[in-house]
Amino acid sequence: MASGTTRGGLIAAAVTVVCAVTVLAAPGTAWAGPNPAPSASATPAPGTTPPTAPTAPTPSKDLQAVRAQLDTLYHDAAVATDAYNAAEEAAKKQSAALVELARKIVKGRERLAELKTRAGAAAAAQYRTGGLPDEAHLLLSDDPQEFLDGTGRVLQGQKATKGLLAELTQTQQDLEQYAKDASAQWQKLEANRKAKAKAQKRIEQQIAAAEELESQLEKQEKERLAQLEQEAARQAQTAWLDTGVLKGAQGKATTQGAKAVRFATAQMGKPYEWGAEGPKTFDCSGLTSQAWAHAGVPVPRTSQEQWKQLPHVAVEDMRPGDLIIYFKDASHVALYVGDGTIVHAPRPGRTVTLAGAGSMPILGVVRPGA
Q1: Of 294, 240, 245, which is closest to residue 267 (Cα–Cα)?
Q2: What are the residues facing 312 on neighbouring strands?
Q3: Does the annotation count 284 as an active-site position?
Q4: Is 312 a catalytic residue?
Q5: Which is nearest to 6 in space by CA: 43, 32, 48, 34?
Q6: What DSSP string describes 218-273?
Q7: 175 close to 105: Cβ distance less than 8 angstroms
Q8: Residues 19, 137, 284, 312: which is the catalytic one?
Q9: Which tens digits make up the pLDDT trace of 289-309?
Q10: I need a surface site. Which of 219, 246, 254, 353 has the fewest CB within 10 A?
Q11: More confident residue, 95 or 132
């Protein structure tokens, strides 16, 4: 095992690297530098036993700095994941719109060809009668009954001709509009593809930086880091419960809410994967949206849209099945299962799990199917 000096220097180097990576994502974020490495022991006095140099643990404030940087990296990855998911959903809708427009264009062209054929047939018939319109032939008739019978046919013919021309014109206008709409949808689709690619790059960069930082830690340091995270979550949950926010809360899950809870808890142990909606992996909003889809209630794909579009309820009135939105930017979401507990897909490297509902900063609560 490396000495305390080497380990302390390694942590300092790791923190410096990740700060450089995240400086654009989180300007002004401060972190505590490592303590100076302990100096070498003085030469022991004659007759005394030289002390054994202990492998001192990394100072907790060094790991706290690492933990803060990891939180920043994974939070930024979560924000980029929401952007990726939003672009993905928009691209799906735009692709579907393009398919529908293509269907309308094909159908419109077929109808236009049919109308032109009918118009051509009418022109040919007029040519065969010497170019005289039906009205002229009628006036030249010597038979009064034929005149009366023909009057009705002429009126019907005039109406049919006007209708044919009107439909022909409208069909042409529709085709022009479909073409314009298709062009606009294609441009939006391309813009969202670029947005997806940009978000994907950002996600991969942040996750890679976090993994690189974690790879610099030794086994004992990773274990200590996990303990710090658990302790921070426990303290946050205790402080939240101590506010009395759940006192008197008796909200019971609806039938659909209970279905969503059962689905979400059945996914426990499955890995987090950004952009995933199951069945083998999930990201946070992929889990919540699929849980409610399983219950028969469609909800927006991203945590930010879930916050924007779903009805809000007071935290003290929440019931199992409600969605808790976290952080000021609504970058994380979990499904409330009751008794102050959530089920969620935390972040890369973790699995779907239970946690305290107050272990992260709560933005608010929304209720699908309200």
Answers
A1: 294
A2: 366
A3: yes
A4: no
A5: 34
A6: -HHHHHHHHHHHHHHHHHHHHHHHHTTTTTT------HHHHHHHHHHHHTTTPBB-
A7: yes
A8: 284
A9: 999 999 999 999 999 999 999
A10: 219
A11: 95
